[in-house]
Amino acid sequence: MSDGNSAYGKKKFNRSRSHFADRITADGRDGWPVAEGRYRLVACRACPWASRAVISRRLLGLEDALSMGIVDPIQDDRSWRFTLDADGRDPVLGIRFLSEAYDTRETGYPGGVSVPAIVDVPSGQLVTNDFQQITLDLATEWTALHREGAPDLYPERLRDEIDDVMHGVYEDLNNGVYRAGFATDQKDYEEACTAVFHRLEWLSKRLAGQRYLVGDTITEADIRLFTTLVRFDPVYHGHFKCNRWKLAEDPVLWAYVRDLFQTPGFGDTVDFDHIKRHYYEVHTGINPTGIVPLGPELAGWLSAHGREELGGRPFGDGTPPGPVRPGEEVPAPGRP
Fold first, then answer.
1. Choice among 154, 178, 189, 236 that is catalytic
2. pTM confidence score
3. Catalytically annotated residue among 8, 39, 47, 280
4. Average pLDDT of the chain to the nearest whole number
């Protein structure tokens, strides 16, 4: 991050577009064909954008086809670090910082080092950090490597509706919490925070009568909403000042997010310890003491939600993913 972590909350927030937007496709039209074992997904369990890719990879059963490296939730001004691995190096890529893969691709590139990132293992260079497109391509371009029974996360007949819903959720909520949290003046904060809660109220009404966001199965739209909602009470409510009410105070949204959390592929990828430590320790511009709150309590995530009464088929004609593969489990401090 060119301006350092302390810059958060001290300058107007603008999310930059992904600079590296090459796509990994079945036909390899960008020069990156889908191939088992060739690429490595680098993710941080604290990051909602990276968590989308982690969830999609698991739901689709791409663990053997696309290896995964998890970075330390506390990055420094040199970028995301592989300090969770032995010797502080990614065991597949052999690098200490994700920025090394970026530099291998392009020296002096504009923008910061972001996750998720997909790296070409043979060359060691970054392929893409386009968080908006990565999960769509995992669902539609990697189909030859999907597990048997993988769900269709981006069904063609629902794509227009999914895209429309995702656009509003992104503008007002996914990105809106950041615009509120990193606002540098009262007007910007109030506009962003108001949009956040307008969108939450819209979602609550929509989900009151249907189990999933679009159609009767889990889709990309649910994944993108979940990664923001699961962070709402732990970090966005307090740290980002989105505190008109807690998610747990809305019966519909609280039940919806618990339903997904308890669905294989969702909650088993969530690390609340990484989430809290990243936001409260890294964003020193808005939390200069670096103190991490003790709450909220996590036991409620495993409580009954009752959403089965709305019907729906979580995986459509497919099946749930199997157990989390050894070595990819969320450590105990991050689980309810």
1. 178
2. 0.95
3. 47
4. 95
